[in-house]
Design brief:
The protein is α/β, with parallel strands linked by helices and 365 residues long. It is built from 13 helices and 12 strands. The two termini are 18 Å apart. Keywords: Iron, Iron-sulfur, Metal-binding, S-adenosyl-L-methionine.
């Protein structure tokens, strides 16, 4: 039986997480999160103009010792899945290889979101322990890559990233994804620069590399609202994806994020929420060098900070914190990928949800 990797609602019904799902649905504080986003560092070696975390970069990192201790604490809390992400570039931290090893050997599922420039140095651990690695490429050629994902000297490192992805494709046990964020910007001279015309080329390249999936996404602004794009651009992306469909097989999928689906449905940048407590905040959290936050959408927001993982252990932070400090009806009017999960948790609390599944298939709620 195959499952959509982006169907977050059905993932709630997996048996191993069900007790904590019921806990969260009831509105009770959970004993621990099921999934943790972990930023090992705020450093990044690229200088992407559209980076949504640009203001948060280069503001600290965990020591290798503290990062390893954090990994052990995640294991002790019976967290089921960890996503190494940023903020910065997670593979830029020299302690990340050890974290992959600790989590992987303890049986936790590990996802890695990376720009791909440092895959080679971390290849052994990524190939052995990562459940999936998603590389943010956002282009199909070196020239376009250089416009949207330049390094700190303004150069394109596209060929290096693609070469690294080929290395991982040859050795990986988990899945490898090629992520394409549809972007455009207006230059000072009034011309528009975009990458949308390279969706098909990038999908073909992803297939050639040996990726397991190719994902297209829409841009967010600094407040996490989906950036609206001209209809012509969206139509062009859809035509290219329709042509790329010929590449699909049991070994290669085209994945559409909910952000693009929202654009197609003419959903505006605001996603109203009728509930004042995020039940998903009992199931997921974000740990960064600058603090522990209710969720990744509020990375760097002092009003959503629930602790300091540099100085305190995670069990204590979780026990003492109030994840209800964020009111979704007031604080989360952007597009949230877990809005439907929150609505489903309400259904579960009312007794109108589905019966739990008989087996687990993907812990990344």
């Amino acid at each position: 039986m195959t499952h959509d990797r982006l169907d977050l609602v059905s993932k709630l019904y997996q048996p191993s997480g069900w007790p904590r799902i019921l806990e969260a649905a009831s509105g009770s504080p959970s004993g621990a999160p099921l999934v943790v986003d972990l930023d090992p560092t705020t450093f990044c070696d690229l200088a992407c103009p559209e980076c949504i975390s640009g203001k948060l970069l280069n503001q600290g990192r965990f020591t290798p010792e503290r990062l390893a201790a954090l990994a052990e604490e995640l294991v002790a809390l019976s967290v089921r899945a960890v996503v190494l992400i940023g903020g910065g570039e997670p593979l830029a931290h020299r302690g990340t290889r050890r974290v992959l090893r600790i989590l992987g050997e303890a049986g936790l599922a590990v996802g890695v979101v990376t720009n791909g420039t440092m895959i080679r140095q971390n290849l052994t651990e990524l190939a052995q322990y990562a459940s999936w690695v998603r590389v943010s490429v956002d282009a199909g050629t070196a020239e376009t890559y250089g416009r949207f994902r330049p390094d700190r000297k303004g150069r394109s490192v596209f060929d290096k990233v693609i070469g690294n992805m080929r290395l991982l494709a040859a050795e990986k046990k988990g899945a490898l994804g090629y992520s394409f964020l549809v972007m455009s910007r207006q230059e000072p001279d009034g011309t528009t620069v975009t990458n949308h015309h390279e969706v098909l080329r990038a999908a073909e390249l992803a297939h050639d590399i040996g990726c397991d999936y190719f994902e297209t996404k829409a841009m967010f602004d600094d407040d996490h609202h989906i950036v609206q794009v001209p209809r012509t651009m969206l139509d062009s992306v859809d035509r290219q994806l329709a042509e790329a469909a010929r590449l699909e097989s049991d070994r290669f999928q085209l994945v559409n994020s909910s952000t693009l689906t929202s654009l197609r449905g003419h959903v505006g940048p605001v996603q109203p929420k009728a509930y004042d407590r995020c039940r998903v905040a009992e199931l997921r959290t974000l740990i960064t060098p600058s603090g522990v936050y209710v969720c990744a959408y509020h990375r760097g927001n002092p009003l959503a900070r629930i602790g300091d993982a540099v100085t305190d252990d995670l069990a204590t932070i979780w026990q003492k914190s109030d994840r209800g400090i964020v009111d979704p009806s007031r604080d989360c009017r952007f597009h949230c990928a877990r809005h439907r999960s929150n609505l489903e948790l309400e259904r579960i609390a009312e007794g109108t949800g589905e019966p739990p599944l008989t087996e687990d298939y993907d812990p990344f709620l």
